[in-house]
Design goal:
The protein is mainly alpha-helical and about 110 residues long. Helix 1 runs antiparallel to helix 2, helix 2 packs antiparallel against helix 3 and helix 3 packs antiparallel against helix 4.
Length: about 110
Amino acid sequence: MSIDFKENIIRLMQHPIMHKPISELTGSEQSQAYELLDSLVESSMDNSCTQIGYIQISRLYYALGELAYEQGDAPERIIKYFLSSLHSLEKGGIDLSLNKWAELVNLRQSSES
């Protein structure tokens, strides 16, 4: 883990985004949070990511999507962040397909019968 990564984690933990909703952050606080999260995503990209690592990256992308939305960013960028969040979950082994949904619904109905 690099020094910059550790420092950015500490900075994020001390940032107001950890204590209040994104919609209540000032423009400056939103910009700072965006830079921190973007840096953390870049630092977290590793080909040997574990399932937990992908879930953590998904959380960062999701927060970036929320920030981009609050800042009135381009819809394409907002969508990119939310899709990246979902793709990270899939890479982490979480099946978001409709086939999995149907399988689980069938299991539930079978157990209720």
